[in-house]
Amino acid sequence: MSMLELSHVKKSFGGVKAVNDFSMKADSNQIIGIIGPNGAGKTTIFNVISGIYTADEGQIILDGVDITKKQQHEIALLGLSRTFQNIRLFKGLTCLENVMTTYDPVSKYNLLDAILLSKRRRQEEKKSKEICMDALEWVGLADFADERPENLSYGLQRRLEIARALASNPKVLLLDEPAAGLNPKEVNDLADLIYRIKEERGITILLIEHRLEVVMTISETIYVQNFGETICIGTPREVQCDCRVVEAYLGEDN
Amino acid sequence: MGFLSAILTFTLITCITVCGLYILTGLTGMFSLGQAAFMAIGAYAGGLLSVRLNVPFPLCLVAAIIAAIIIGYFIGFPIMRLRRDYLALVTLGFGEAIIAVINQSVGITGGSMGLTGIPKYTSLTLVVIILICSILFARNFRRSKYGRMAIAVRSDELAAKSMGINVPRIKMRSFLIAASLTSLSGALYAFFIQYADPTLFNWRKSGEWVIMVFFGGVNSLTGSIFATFLLTSLPEILRSVQQYRLLVYSALVLLAINFKPDGLFGHWEVTDLFAKKKKTGIRKESK
In the predicted model, what is the mean pLDDT of chain B? Predict the structure, then answer.
């Protein structure tokens, strides 16, 4: 059954149609790639799904719940996590604390427990720490739990963002250019990691990526966007052979 | 009561306010330039109940907190969705408005003549006890999920929202906590100097508190408390060189902010001295 379903989603900024009639269906346990040249509206799609923007038209269904008009934090609590194109970690918190912020909104203790250091607080904090250490281990950052994120290398910061997105145990994970700025070895490791997240945790993953070697190797279906329009949908092989895709990337053949 | 003990009491009362501001400005990153108005609310709510209605002292303190929460909620509701620079403006306006209201309602508050005849119930011991409670409150708040979420909101609101954090609610919570603590300290202040008048609570006081939090370190409760001690007592210590004291004060603050943008203490807390072992413990477990 479909985990995330977008039907005829439109979003314009003034006269610019950033997303024009985008429809998509993602089943559970599937990686979907979204590619396209700069300004094709890829990140806008993510922003509309995660509630940063509200769609002008169309409908978005997450695991049977209509999230089109919901607020960002409500959508997150319904099981949608994301990372950002420009890394947005929380300064002033350690790596572990960064990950814990994702679990905190569902952590079950109140202000009184927090102030009086009650038993419930201890149990919940312990549980949260376990879940979040587990997420850090998943991305291979367990040794950096007490480190501050700004001291990590770029590649590790990207991984930390993924760990933070995983800690809430989402149904759908949106990754916005996770391989940007990584070296070839890191790109390979990242592709493995994303594949492992899908295989072992059964999470539906939407992936925006410019590094085609990543998208082509791990996605099952690829949507190609250009100027807000979907120009091609297919498996990696089909997409690579589609002349409209080649045109969008390399320009028209004269 | 001697001069020194009076200064000490006053400093400790300010520390109670600063505990609240550590949560509001330090952790949540919200600037309130009208915070002194909450001190006025506390001073007048407590003072009036005691002077006019003979309400017992502990109830006056509770009433001060409740008044601050109610007024804070109404002020806070529309402004929680504003950007932080607008928040500073709105709170500034609100603060001055409260002072004007107190000034104008001569019949109830005594207006600019001030409210006199407040009994002296605040003792140094009481202030110390309440301050210790406030410090523990702020510390436990920081170390709980509430502290983490507040810092997340300060650091990146957009990312915080997409982690499922209800940003307006976090801001409101911090705002109300700061308002309550400020109001409580206002009531203690009124019962200490046995007098309240609107000029005591202008926006410059709110500004001073923001400076204290930044001077000591936005991320450090230890730093905020230390800065409060230093910056409250400094003008008194420098009293002998009257004409230069504001100069020294300003120079010190500017130097600190220029050379240590994170504040004197940065992230450091006194408790870090004891916490080192525990932290490495977590790291080993994970291997």
Answer: 85
Query: What are B128's two structure tokens?
Result: 């110390």
Residue B101 corresponds to which tokens in the numbers above?
């209201």
Rounded to an integer, what distance in angstroms lies between the CA atom of residue A10 and that of residue B191? 62
Residue-by-residue pLDDT tens, chain A, 254 positions: 688 999 999 999 988 889 988 999 998 889 999 998 888 889 999 999 999 999 999 999 999 899 999 999 999 999 999 999 889 999 889 999 999 999 999 888 888 888 888 899 999 999 999 999 999 998 999 999 999 999 998 889 999 999 999 998 899 999 999 998 888 898 999 999 999 999 888 899 999 998 888 888 999 999 998 888 888 898 888 888 877 777 777 676 55
| Ramachandran assignment for B110, one of left (phi > 0), alpha (psi -120 to 50 degrees), beta (any other) | left
Query: Model's pTM, two decimal places?
Result: 0.89
**Do the chains contact at B155 and A73, CB–CB below 8 Å?**
no
Q: Report the gap between the CA of A212 and the closest CA in chain B (Å).
A: 27
Interchain CB distance below 8 Å, B163 and A168: yes
CA terminus-to-terminus distance, chain A: 44
CA distances from B203 to A194, B36, B37, B64, B85 (A): 53, 6, 8, 20, 16
Taking residues B25-51, what's their average pLDDT? Answer: 90
Question: What is the pLDDT at residue B244?
Answer: 74
Whose structure tokens read 């089943």?
A27
A116–chain B nearest CA distance, Å: 8
Binary contact (B164, A105; C-beta < 8 A): yes
Of B144, B162, B283, the CB nearest to A143: B283
Residue of A nearest to B151 (CA): A92
Cβ distance A115 to B140 less than 8 Å, yes or no, reads: yes
Contacts of B271 (CB under 8 A, 6+ apart): B139
Instruction: Report whether pLDDT(B105) > 90.
Output: no
A43, A48, A52, A55 alpha-carbon torsion, rounded to 10°: 140
Q: Which tokens is B173 given?
A: 């919570």
List the helix and strand counts (H, then E) for chain B: 13, 2
ipTM of the complex: 0.90
Contact A43, A208 (CB under 8 A): yes
Model confidence at B270: pLDDT above 80 = no
Residues of B in contact with A143 (CB under 8 A): 283, 286-287
> What single letter denotes the amino acid at residue A157?
Q
Chain A residue numbers with beta carbons less than 8 Å from the beta carbon of B282 are: 96, 129, 133, 145-146
| CA distances to A179, A190, B167 from A171, in Å | 22, 20, 22
What residues of chain A lie within 8 A of the CB of B141, using their CB?
A: 111, 114-115
DSSP assignment string, A61-97: EETTEE-TT--HHHHHHTTEEE--SS----TTS-HHH
Condensed to tens digits (0 to 9), the pLDDT of residues B241-267 reads: 767 777 777 787 788 777 877 777 777
Q: What is the dihedral of CA B170, B171, B176, B181, to 10 degrees?
A: 100
